[in-house]
Design a protein that fits this description.
alpha/beta; 7 strands; globular
């Protein structure tokens, strides 16, 4: 029951984000850490790529041209985010969006060759269940890539937990790695992806107390955890 309540709270909060236009600037914020991740993923023209927590679909629209013989699929818990993603993506014939939670994605087993999630996993009511669901959806030797800025080893983001209107999971690198291994992933690895974009000297945003904290946050970088599906379970 608690999980269902958290899912409802998450959906309603991100519906509000969509209505306020807060999904539209995520590409600018996240692209500096996503571009190196896409290079590591080595996306091929016939790949079938899943984006979990796709928001307004900006990442899917980056991926779709890379898979002209494949497919890109985005899923988000927010119906409003999905509606915006669909409206902005009509030019792509190999791209589609679904509404639903990370822990229960309406898609058949072993379909995708790659899966990515950017700045979403720490919101999931049950992160371990979300990782297991990604494992279910990947074909054998398919790879999963989870990228997050809110984790134990980046103390410059810990204050987000008290600022956000929904529950979050502040996990360590070791805990995320264990989620992958417990789900059945092999070759599990991790690294930090620094954000090399410039920091304004006169910082006026609300996510950090000042430019120095933002600078340290970017230097520490996002946590990238990845693994390969060894077999069906």
């Amino acid at each position: 029951m608690l999980k269902s309540a958290n899912e409802k709270q998450l959906r309603e909060e991100f519906d509000r984000w969509a209505a306020d236009g807060r999904g539209d600037d995520l590409e600018e914020h996240h692209r500096p850490i996503v571009e190196p991740t896409l290079e590591l993923m080595d996306i091929r023209p016939n790949d079938r790529v899943l984006d979990v927590g796709c928001g307004t679909g900006w990442l899917c629209r980056m991926i779709a041209p890379l898979v002209p013989d494949g497919r890109a699929v985005g899923i988000d818990v927010s119906d409003q985010m999905v509606q915006r993603a669909r409206a902005a993506s009509s030019a792509f014939s190999n791209l589609e969006f679904l509404a639903g939670p990370a822990e229960k994605i309406p898609w058949k087993d072993s379909f995708f060759t790659k899966a990515i999630s950017v700045e979403s996993a720490y919101y999931w009511p049950d992160p371990a269940a979300g990782v297991r669901e990604i494992h279910r959806l990947l074909e054998t030797r398919g790879t999963a890539w989870i990228l997050i800025n809110y984790y134990v080893e980046n103390p410059h983001a810990h204050h987000w937990g008290s600022q956000l209107e929904v529950p979050t999971h502040l996990l360590s690198t070791a805990q995320w790695v264990q989620c992958f291994r417990a789900a059945g992933f092999s070759d599990v690895g991790h690294r930090q992806i620094p954000d090399c974009s410039p920091v304004p000297e006169d910082y006026t945003g609300g996510s950090f107390k000042d430019a120095e904290q933002l600078r340290k946050f970017k230097e520490t970088g996002a946590l990238l955890v990845h693994g390969a599906k060894a077999s069906d379970r």
